[in-house]
Specification:
The chain is α/β, with parallel strands linked by helices. It has two domains: 3-61, DNA polymerase, domain 1; 66-366, Aldolase class I (TIM Barrel). The chain has twelve helices and 14 strands. It has helices spanning 10-19, 26-35, 50-59, 131-148, 170-181, 201-204, 224-230, 233-236, 239-246, 271-280, 306-318, 344-353, and strands at 3-4, 60-61, 66-72, 78-83, 89-97, 100-104, 108-110, 125-128, 157-160, 193-197, 214-218, 257-263, 286-292, 322-325. The strands form three sheets. Strands 3-4-5-6-9-10-11-12-13-14 form a ten-stranded mixed sheet, with helices on one face. Strands 1-2 form a two-stranded parallel sheet. A hairpin with a 5-residue loop joins strand 3 and strand 4 (78-83). It starts with a strand and ends in a 17-residue tail after the last helix. The structure holds iron/sulfur cluster. Iron/sulfur cluster binds next to loops.
Length: 370
């Protein structure tokens, strides 16, 4: 099988093409076209001769995930359904923020972890994404935005918080991350990439193999019984094992680990939950990110009131923790955290239910990511 160009770090690409009789500097040109110009049509790689392109594609392939559906939320979040070469689909989400545009990437088709609150978890694991498919999501969505919305649009941040448990697909996600930070290509700063894990202890102990990006842990409760009820993985890797593994994560000076805490009405939003959290986490090394539960069709949990969410966060702030509440984005198109499931027919029903219309026909000029 041919190697996909999107699966290779710059150094690997250089070595590989030299092995096929193509000059090493062509690797710089390929990285430019793929990751700076987002030009996915080889015919338009004007500084690479036809003879070299022919030679290249004798040994390599270039398969980009295909955008088969996209929907724009009323808050500017845009969800993409991407089809892989074998017909499997995953979702990626473009999230506009103040001075930033983030992309939330998927790492697997479905997910084996089966968190009870998660729409993706109800799917089970179909397969891992390859490195080229993880990188391809970024390139395909950037290409789509630049050709359909605004040629200047670029992502400033990546979060691995889409479908799948990224550390379950350790090697492919690690390689994709190396490609994202490559200075001759996209060149994203390491601090601009965040990987979120449900708590795969053996892989957490190997995080030193990754470029030094930001890490987030889905905690959701400081009580083993409640965490197990939400995340079956806690039966295997309970809080004690998880926090032993977290101690091995190399933290650069001034960096902290983010603990994601899905706040669920009448479940983990009580005073005793705050006390347990304050006991478990180290103030100086932790940030707590409260994620109000996003309801989806058939969800068994409820979102707490806004007053309750604010109260919970203030209680943690008062105890000396940095605590923020994540703004819910893309709720109307099921693009919010835990809502991804590659089923755009249900998205449409959900939208109709809520009398919210996806603004995908909105004029380009009206759409801003700033
Ligand atoms: S929350 Fe993440 S780890 Fe848990 S089932 Fe969903 S995709 Fe998998």
């Amino acid at each position: 099988m041919k190697l996909d160009l999107l699966s290779l770090t710059h150094l690997e690409l250089k070595e590989q093409i030299k092995g096929k009789g193509i000059a090493g500097y062509i690797a710089d040109q390929l990285y430019h076209w793929l990751y700076r110009a987002y030009q996915i049509d080889p015919e338009k790689w004007t500084n690479i001769s036809k003879a070299n392109r022919d030679l290249l594609f004798e040994s390599f392939s270039l398969h980009l995930p295909q955008v088969i559906w996209q929907g724009l939320s009323k808050d500017g979040t845009r969800k993409f359904l991407l089809k892989m070469q074998d017909g499997q689909t995953v979702e990626a989400v473009a999230l506009p923020g103040r001075n930033r545009l983030s992309i939330c990437l998927s790492s697997q088709v479905g997910c084996a972890v089966g968190c009870r609150f998660c729409h993706t978890g109800t799917q089970g694991l179909k397969r891992h994404l390859s490195t080229a498919e993880v990188v391809g999501q970024y390139v395909a969505v950037t290409h789509w935005l630049q050709t359909q919305v605004n040629s200047e649009l670029k992502f400033s941040n990546i979060v691995y918080m889409g479908q799948g448990e990224p550390l379950h697909n350790f090697e492919n996600v690690k390689k994709a991350t190396e490609i994202f930070v490559e200075p001759k290509g996209i060149g994203l700063g390491q601090r601009r990439i965040t990987l979120s894990t449900s708590g795969l202890v053996p892989q957490i102990k190997r995080l030193h193999e990754f470029p030094p990006i930001n890490f987030a842990i889905s905690l959701h409760s400081a009580h083993n019984d409640a965490r197990t009820a939400l995340m079956p993985i806690n039966k295997v890797y309970n809080l004690e094992k998880l926090f032993q593994a977290i101690q091995t994560i190399p933290l650069k000076a001034h960096r902290r680990i983010t603990y994601e805490y899905l706040l669920i009405d009448d479940f983990n939003d009580r005073p005793e939950d705050i006390i347990a959290l304050a006991k478990l986490l180290k103030r100086s090394e932790s940030k707590i990110n409260i994620i109000p539960f996003n309801e989806y069709p058939g969800a068994i949990y409820k979102r707490p009131s806004d007053e309750k969410i604010a109260w919970f966060c203030h209680q943690l702030n008062d105890r000396g923790f940095t605590c923020t509440v994540r703004t819910t984005k893309g709720e109307d198109i099921l693009a919010a955290c835990g809502q991804l499931k590659s089923e755009y027919d249900k998205v449409n029903l959900w939208q109709e239910d809520q009398q919210l219309k996806v603004l995908s026909e909105k004029k380009k000029s009206q759409f801003s990511f700033t």
